[in-house]
Amino acid sequence: MAEQHDSIRAGAAGTAPVPLSVLYLATVGSGRTATDALRTSVELARGAERLGYHRFWVAEHHSMPGVASSSPAVILAHLAAHTERIRLGSGGVMLPNHAPLVIAEQFGTLEALAPGRIDLGLGRAPGTDGATAAALRRTDRLNEGAEDFPQQLTELTRFLDDDFPDGHPYRRIHAVPGPVQGTVAGGVQSPARPPVWLLGSSGFSARLAGVLGLPFAFAHHFSAAHTIPALDLYRESFRPSATLDEPYALIGVSALATEDEKEARREVLTGALSMVRLRTGRPGLIPSPEEAEAHEFSALEQEFAESWLRNVVHGTADAVRDGLDGLVKRTGADELMITSNAHGARARLRSYELIAEAYGLPGAQG
Fold this sequence. Notes:
By secondary structure, this protein is of the alpha/beta class. The chain contains 13 helices and nine strands. It has helices at 34-51, 72-82, 100-113, 130-137, 142-147, 149-161, 203-212, 227-237, 261-279, 289-294, 299-309, 317-331, 345-359; strands spanning 20-24, 55-58, 87-94, 118-123, 196-200, 216-218, 249-257, 312-315, 335-339. It has an eight-stranded parallel barrel with strand order 1-2-3-4-5-6-7-9, surrounded by eight helices. β2 (55-58), α2 (72-82) and β3 form a beta-alpha-beta unit. The longest helix has 19 residues, at 261-279.
């Protein structure tokens, strides 16, 4: 049987049914700057570490005024310098946007900076609109990038492991920092490398993760209708590997806890309005609660906002705990990764504190 990867599986803390983690998009609120958002990333990562959350991941998005996480590797390097224990990772890097060698070099560098704490989550979507994806990839043949994903994944994995076969055109090319440093005269190199996760919002990556025996992270927070079918497909397709003996599925969930139920609704409405604007081609900064309350939603906008909010677990800490518990029971998820929709840093951090207290996580007070 395969050796279980300790960096993937973890025990649940406190009374939580599964490990709890954090996803941050470096969102920029109205009246705030990207500097504010990135400073918040440090505050949240350190808070999550103190409270007892398992991981802290950042996502890759492009050409969105309200999202400052266009360069996950840069942000993760900054977070590595300000944390000590929490796992840090990408949720995720969009593989078709980058040369596999570049990703291997970036995450090899991160592994050298924070040994044993780095996760490499990979996605197949561009994380942006088609025009921006074409600029990133320097081609307008975007379907080819998505269709080539398994080949790109194989290439990236071989760079990470430095094990291209003899005769391969890349056999003498090495991702540095990486395993090659342990093979040269006098070289000493840790055998560890960042574990690879596949991310998805549909069945493609679910099946691929299963076939390859990799951990799988599903974007329940924006594709809730497909969560259970994708997780079922992942588990049905799973084949034991050198990485995992059994499936391991994480799901991203949008959740916000406050001391008062009405305040929670007021805060999450900002995220709903932001999504309305994004889906109607008007992306902008995350509105303040006051802006969201004053907005006159059209009938279609109201319908979309309410549909969006039904998938956001929000309310008091007890209500959020009950909602998260129910989600684990329905999906069988092995880990929850919580993203909090709110305009300000304080509301986000307080939400993670309240959730930690509700579950009795080791660093929670109260």
